[in-house]
Amino acid sequence: MIEAAQHTDGVQDDKAPRACVVERVAGFVPPLRVTNDELPSDWEVSDVWVRSRTGVGSRHRAGRGVSTSDLAREAAVRALAGADTVDALLLATSTPDHPLPATAPELATRLGLGPVPAFDVSAVCSGFVYGLAVGAGLLATGAAQRVLLVGADVYSTLLDPADRSAGIVFGDGAGAVVLRAGSATEAGALLGFDLGSDGGHAGLIQVPDGGSRSRAAGDGTAAGEGDPYFRMWGSEVYKHAVIRMTESARRVLDRVGWSGDDVDCFVAHQANARILSAVADRLGIPAERCVNDLAEVGNTGAASIPLALARAQEAGRLRGGERVLLTAFGGGLTWGSTVLRWPSRPVALAPPFQDASR
């Protein structure tokens, strides 16, 4: 497990590396909205049933011909609008356009960024928090002065049409932030990180087929061969998610000298309303300080935290200087947390998806 501490709130050592500062945030969801009442009839679910178990009221679908890079571009354009040029791009995703090459270089070209370093970050639903840590490293070493980090997933391409347990939860979307080098004393600075993983439970969240494991067998005997769909063991995932996010959040809060009472806004990976509530309760953070975006967009994977931040700021729930805690959990297993004081910056929430071909 990686534990990267920086500074207590408001204190910076002259010899400390440059801090990573969140400068801008934006989000995007495609226009096709699927409510609980519009879910397949053979799933035999109702709006009340889905909301009571997951907190999800609707989710958005990318639709035919729309890929992860298309959604990522829409969020990125909004985050970059009027901003200074970025010199590195990170894309957190579990649904790349192709197994290889990475999607980020093509995204950088579509955005007109030139020959900047660009690569994917693969940590499933923890990808955005991992991406923040990677971006902080690029800034601290001087490898970049300004970094664009996008979290985007099109989970609808991975879902088994017969699997209602995943189908009722997951949606498609993208969120993006612009990061820059700055001081740990200014609003927007990421003050500390906690990252971890446990590959011993990799099978709890998995797409069994499509990788080198199944391809190497080549005779139909490999476990999972022929199953290209997303699989998740819900009850076990729930337990691990609550424990890992709670422990990770506590470690990063301790590192910067905050408690749950100090947190003005808690934004966890939007996995399931029961998970969010359980983690918040264990941290001592009241419900009114928690951002819950599930009712509108569901679980959007690596996009969930930046998209929730963008929508929360658009709704006036985030104000400059507030203490914000971010935590995530995903397949791998992976988890991570970070804290910051929120910057005073505008945010653009996406209009309807007009053109996926650009």
Write a compact overview of the structure shown:
Pathway: Lipid metabolism; fatty acid biosynthesis. The protein has ten helices and 15 strands.
Explain how this protein is built:
The chain has 358 residues and is of the alpha/beta class. It folds into 2 domains: 9-188, 3-Layer(aba) Sandwich (Peroxisomal Thiolase, Chain A, domain 1), CATH 3.40.47.10; 191-347, Peroxisomal Thiolase, Chain A, domain 1. The chain is 28% helix and 24% strand. It has 10 helices and 15 strands. The strands form 4 sheets. A 6-stranded mixed beta sheet has the order 6-5-7-8-2-15, sandwiched between helices. Helix 7 (234-256) runs parallel beside helix 8 (273-283). The termini are far apart.
